[in-house]
Write a structure and sequence with these properties.
Elements lengths: L1 H27 L5 E3 L2 H7 L8 E7 L8 H20 L5 E7 H11 L6 E5 L14 E3 L8 H12 L11 H24 L7 H16 L2 H7 L5 E2 L5 E2 L10 H20 L1
Parallel strand pairs: 1-3, 2-3
Antiparallel strand pairs: 2-4, 4-5, 6-7
Helix pairs in contact: 3-5, 6-7, 7-9
């Protein structure tokens, strides 16, 4: 009996290793390391609680026919976290995966999932990385956790190890910063020329008014309230600057619109 128990344990370890290796191979087929799962692969490599590795899975609908902008935003964040984890080359056995509704519609229906995307955590059930409760759990996707840095921070807390997101450099932020500094310098110069002992010249008020109008018409307040993703991403990985629906917008849209309006306003002033 003891020999049988040892053999059973060894076989389970080998199967778990093969499952994790299979997930790694699927991840290598994706440029960001996110394994694209079929339903059978999900049931074999993710669901078993006897595995000695953890899996972070997004249940989503990325096909254009579903028009799910939030799905693409979460997918972009998860990919940034997956890239960061892959570059860390950490020893922890954590995999990132995707189960699309096109591949797991039957499972979605049985689980009563009527709202997506969802981010599910399937912890390790045995081994050095096992958790006391190996049952799957859902990570709530709030305004903070939807962004790469926030998602990485929350996953770091759950797994007890540092996970960093690999976010691309936001060059537009630096451009906006430079434009802001130049605008501030222009305002300061105009104010220096026109300010009297008690009255501010009309040019300064014009610049202040135009700046206020630009901020209000660019959608900045909407972004502050709704905290949308900075930019979108198609299923093929292409960057999307403008949201396809009227009820949604990306953060970069505000910067583009504000810059365009600022250029137009400056042209009018100079003319």
């Amino acid at each position: 009996m003891r020999v049988w128990a040892v053999l059973t344990t060894a076989l389970a370890a080998v199967c778990a290793g093969q499952s994790f290796s299979s997930l790694q191979q699927l991840g290598k087929a994706d440029r960001d390391g996110v394994a694209q799962l079929e339903l059978e692969q999900f049931m074999a490599h993710v669901v078993p609680e006897t595995k000695d590795y953890a899996v972070v899975v997004q249940l989503t609908a990325l096909s254009p026919q579903y028009k799910c902008d939030t799905c693409h935003a979460i997918d972009k964040s998860l990919r940034a976290v997956s890239r960061g984890w892959r570059r860390q080359r950490a020893s922890r056995r954590i995999a990132f995966a995707t189960l699309d509704v096109d591949n797991g519609e039957e499972l979605f229906r049985k689980m009563g999932i009527d709202k997506i995307p969802r981010l599910m955590i399937f912890p390790a059930g045995r081994g050095d990385e096992a958790m006391a409760d190996a049952s799957p759990r859902e990570m709530k996707l709030g305004a903070k956790n939807s962004h790469p840095a926030g998602m990485a921070s929350r996953l770091s807390e759950l797994f007890g190890t540092e996970i960093q997101a690999d976010e691309p450099i936001d060059y537009m932020r630096y451009i906006i910063g430079v434009v802001g500094v130049l605008a501030a310098a222009f305002v300061a110069r105009m104010a220096w020329r026109r300010v009297s002992s008690s009255v501010v010249g009309r040019n300064v008020w014009a610049v202040v008014s135009i700046t206020f109008v630009l901020v209000m018409t660019s959608g900045l307040m909407w972004n502050r309230i709704n905290a949308p993703p900075f930019m979108g991403q198609t299923r093929t990985g292409d960057v999307v600057l403008f949201a396809p629906t009227n009820s949604q917008q990306y953060g970069v849209e505000t910067q583009i619109v504000a810059t365009a309006y600022a250029v137009c306003a400056l042209c009018v002033v100079l003319l």
